[in-house]
Amino acid sequence: MAEAHQAVGFRPSLTSDGGEAELSAPVLQEIYVSGLRSWKRHLSRFWNDFLTGVFPASPLSWLFLFSAIQLASFLQLDPSLGLMEKIKELLPDWGGQHHRLRGVLAAALFASCLWGALILTLHIALRLLLSYHGWLLEPHGAMSSPTKTWLALVRIFSGRHPMLFSYQRSLPRQPVPSVQDTVRKYLESVRPVLSDEDFDWTAGLAQEFLKLQASLLQWYLRLKYWWASNYVSDWWEEFVYLRSRNSLMVNSNYYMMDFLYVTPTPVQAARAGNAVHALLLYRHRLNRQEILPVRGPGCYSYNVSHLSALHASAHTTPDHIRHLRDSRHVAVFHRGRFFRVGTHSQSGLLSPRALEQQFQRILDDPSPACPHEEHLAALTAAPRDMWAQVRRSLKTRAGDALEAVEGAAFFVSLDSEPAGLAREDPAASLDAYAQALLAGRGHDRWFDKSFSLMVFSNGKLGLSVEHSWADCPISGHMWEFTLATECFHLGYSADGHCKGHPDPSLPHPQRLHWDLPDKVRPGVWASSPSPQVPDFDPKLIPAPSLNLQITPVPYSIPSPNSNPAPTPVASSTNCPLRPRPQSGSVHSEQWQLATSQIPVQQVHLFDVHNYPDYVSSGGGFGPADDHGYGVSYIFMGDDTITFHISSKKSSTKTVRQT
Predict the structure, then answer these.
(1) Cis amide leading into 56 (omega within 30)
(2) This model's pTM is above 0.85
């Protein structure tokens, strides 16, 4: 075990009779180094937060302003219009010899106040500029004069060399839309897919809602809008995800795929070593805010606050998110066994080759899984109340092992089977790949973790992501960085291994042992999937974009001021295909079509012209309804769109994908 090996080399000096301990220089050195590391981390975060808070200004701009005020004073000018003299009067009188010092302090205080006012003005100006949405309506390839002017002003006020969270304070708040507009748009969205009778019933409900409930609910939203930074995000997280008592598997999680047509190395441990190193390097840069802000056209910045929750665990009773910003190990699952693998040494993050060595040690470990251990993780796929009850018992009897998993940076599953595109049967192999990533065997990933890294025996990768902490663009940003870094920047040697040299002095990965209470064991078997479960039926379709055609639905509605125009089937929202009048409430409608587009956010990381196969094939998710479809799509390079379509095998109302 890693702790046992490390404890051997960390013995405080004792007297010869084993009595009173003596002061030990190595122990004091370890304490000093640990404290120094902690303080450096805190100071770095404080400094980064300070730089983010004053952006687009900088500390140098304060120094320039202070110097200009001092120069003006030297020339017997008063740019403060008497304010510095009033500040000097408020300062303590230290005697005549310190009169000049009082003047310097007064100038520094005035410069700080003026600097802060200028920063506030810049923030307000940038927020107002970013509230402009006219660019969204511009035709492709053209730009109006107002939009050009707006873009120039945004670039002027945006500053240079921004850090990741530099624009957070300047982003406009999510506005509360008019309830009348919301109801109107809702009715417009459902009109093409409802019969006249069902639409009349839905419109009646909408009018009843406007008369009886809308005004009070709208008042609640406006109150929260003025009180909180975002009126919807925390409620969305809690009521849509954390309060749900359903299983996370298929119902909540989603998956992200590797390169579709290439695998950089067939060596499983090497791919795991590079990928884990790249993921933790992303976390390191995230903590130091060295990642560039996510931007739209021109200089338009997006909210990236959810990036801070990348490494987290969802806990039960009640469900909440635990943030793990500095975890220095990963939890690894292989052939029914759990391991704790340290990812850092005293000098920092382990090299990819050292991590490969640790994963290879796990792959070579012949020890069998203990009884019930192999299917233990299936409990995290159980209904949440069942898992909460079992977790309480597990925490009492196997708390150390449970904390090693829940406190890990993320979960790694070393799969014993290959995955990915197979030339013999491309369609079936891609569908199986999607199945393996989203649900696997149901017991080979810890669904509570923010994400699980899946590494298959042939070197193929993938992510299974828990949904509550962020939507796909956040995890997609991390995944793009990971694929580009592990393939193009870290790279592999000619024999497929990570570059560099192994470190034989590293302690072996620690095998986790679970003392399972008797009442836990039946729960493990009850949660373990049968051959028919998970209830997930995926289909992955790479399609040339030139051959893609949007097919109109058979019933379309004319726009008020134009000729009738077809309404496309594809949509980037959820759409109720058949609202049910007998339910008596819109809340009971089943959303039978859920669609989402995965954006490629960091195109500079990939050279799609020279290496067109080195692009991610996106990811997918399960259907939002037992009798519905989940559809995700991503543009791969310049000429391909990949669709991820899913339904449930148990449904009698959907077309089987396989």
Answers:
(1) yes
(2) no
